[in-house]
Amino acid sequence: MSLADNKKSTLFKFLSIFSLVRIYNILLIVIAQYLTSIFILSEKSFMEVILDFNLFLIILCSSISIASGYIINNFYDGKKDLINKPIKHKIDDVVNSSTKLNFYFILNLIAVFFASSISIRAVIFFSVYIFFLWLYSHKLKRILFIGNLFYSLLTITPFFAILLYYRNLDLIIVAYALFLFFIILLKDLTKDLKNLVGDFTQNYQTIPVVFGEGFSRIVISLITFINILLIFNLFINFSTGYMDLYYGFSLLMLIIFILKLYKSGDVSYYLELHNILRLIIALGVFSIILLAI
User: Fold this and answer.
1) Which pTM does this prediction carry?
2) Pick from 292, 290, 293, 264: which is nearest to 276 by CA?
3) 181 and 233 in contact (C-beta within 8 Å)?
4) Which of 32, 30, 65, 21 is nearest to 281 (CA)?
5) What are the residue boundaries of the structural domains of the chain, listed by start?
6) Which residue from 217, 218, 227 is spatially nearest to 253, judged by alpha carbons?
7) pLDDT, tens digit, for every residue of 68-90?
8) Which of 83, 190, 205, 217 could serve as 144's disulfide partner, Cβ 3.0–4.6 Å?
9) CA 36 to the chain's CA centroid
10) How many Cα neighbours within 13 Å face the side chain of 91?
11) How far is CA 131 from CA 37, 65, 72, 136, in A?
12) Is the separation of the CB atoms in 35 and 290 below 8 Å?
């Protein structure tokens, strides 16, 4: 193999690892953790939070744990992704399974090592989190609705790490966390509609597979209604700064979402619905800044 081929192979493997761990999602969570610390949880100044080494380690452990979770999830979902995400599967498959597993175990060891420099509580927290990320990928995601609930819970779990660090559980945090949980749950249920063919082929017990698309739309509608109620709760009880702008935008997006839900009928429509919810989540992260305006 020539030097040029070696460089090309290395580049492809780098892109594959980048795709595997979904760096863009991890960066969003890192930003959300820092913004939550700065504008909601901590009473320290901006620079004091940024330079807080223990907070940095907690966020680093969260990021590494999430990355390892994506890798083990990809390991178990290979056949399904071949059907649902053929292009992404080709990119991810550049790295072989044994390398993925080795990378997975190394990341977990690094996460626990860094956690040990914080406290024994941090070691226990991240060890349990890593275990449930594996359990979700291996077993729980195949169980009807339990998989969706655990996906949503595991997604917001990194925020509990910084809550424990600051020992600050204000009602506004509970309200935001509840809204985020149900938005993520809604996104995962919508993803199940998008991935119906692959889930059915691999015998994943999702709501669309077991009960069909019509019943899934009803469940999604109910979760959307819960989210709308939660937005009104945020409007009425937690209108801080300019957060009303985000609440109003989210409400509008959910109305558009529910209208499109009953017009959809193929993968491209479900992908559009999925992207609407991703937009709500992404803007929700950056809207935390509005609390201070």
Assistant:
1) 0.89
2) 264
3) no
4) 32
5) 1-143, 170-293
6) 227
7) 999 998 888 766 666 666 655 56
8) 205
9) 16
10) 13
11) 26, 10, 11, 9
12) no
Place of tokens 């119906």: 196
Say if residue 223's pLDDT is above 50.
yes
Per the CB < 8 A criterion, the answer to whether 223 and 229 are in contact is no
For the segment 37-66, the average pLDDT, to the nearest whole number, is: 93
Contact 29, 158 (CB under 8 A): yes
Closest CA to 193 of 210, 176, 180: 210
With cut-offs at 50, 70 and 90, classify the pLDDT of residue 3.
very low
- CA dihedral sign of residues 242, 247, 250, 256: negative
b (16+ CB within 10 A) / e for 143-175: eeeebbebbbebbbbbbebbbebbeeeeeebee
Return the CATH class of domain 170-293.
mainly alpha
Q: Which tokens in the block code for residue 31?
A: 């930003």
Instruction: Please provide the distance, in angstroms rounded to a whole number, between the alpha carbons at the two ends of the chain.
Output: 58
User: Could you tell me which of 136, 137, 116, 139 has the C-alpha nearest to residue 126?
Assistant: 116
Residue type for position 174: V
The tokens 């479900």 sit on which residue? Answer: 270
Mean pLDDT of the chain, nearest integer? 86
